[in-house]
């Protein structure tokens, strides 16, 4: 398969006299094959928008290389721009224009045949409301209009930042069907989303970013399989002993993620070892169950962003590369 998008060793440092130096992208890699729906995931502040803005030539990178549809960018952006549709930040529309006026204006400016306006209105489900002013639209309808505008050029690569934002469950399902239909027609779709259940349902592959670096990538099933090995849920007779148990198991080399009423362990070969270790310290197990993980658990584990009772995780606290499975609260911090 050929890569529609290739990013290698991308670096972006923001410097400010007041806030110092921030490595927003710290050698980030990403590869997206043709015709797939690819999920781009990461905690808040991990570098997703910076990556997408850099890719679209809106930000100058400090290092690394990027190629879109086989052309090195940003140099070849004028060549490939007509084949890339993107919504990276909520686009602003004229509030007094209708959806059809808005799309007709954009189509005219981009040499897109007028007939395409009705096609995209149909695709995103706005056909029956196309004559109404944008200012009367709900958030979800504006989101549909944004997707319609990105589809106008019938791009080969469609990049969407949070396309399900503001959509109701029915709208999310329709968006999911639309993404799959587009991919089946040969379009490659890259989408960031915080709705991990959706990503798991829609995407062929995912890239997970944390602190500006790739921490996991590949087909969803493969990423799940890599991280579901030895997954075990542990409950104790006394829930107040969970902190002590997490500490003990962590020191024994088990990857532990804390939840309010249980622990999730990863990489456990023999669950009996866990109950023995805990019992030796008078911590008694009430449940020890092997579990198959979902994308949300994998995301929380490898980015170390699972909530910990009594702790308020700060946005820059997520996992560093090569250290999956660290417990939440791991300090990331900004390297110089
Ligand atoms: N113009 C800027 N100046 C300084 N720092 C910036 C700038 N833009 C982004 N950053 C920082 O770079 C880091 C990455 O930000 P980015 O917006 O790429 O994250 P993100 O993954 O898109 O987050 P979110 O999911 O919250 O949208 C953050 O710490 C952010 O504060």
Automatic annotation (TrEMBL):
Matches recorded under InterPro entries: AAA+_ATPase, ABC_transporter-like_ATP-bd, ABC_transporter-like_CS, P-loop_NTPase
Keyword annotations of the record: ATP-binding, Nucleotide-binding, Transport
SMART domains: AAA
Entry's family note: Belongs to the ABC transporter superfamily.
The species this protein was found in: Micromonospora humidisoli
A Pfam family the protein falls into: ABC_tran
Domain of life of the native organism: Bacteria
Region: Disordered, residue numbers: 310-336
Protein name stated in the entry: ATP-binding cassette domain-containing protein
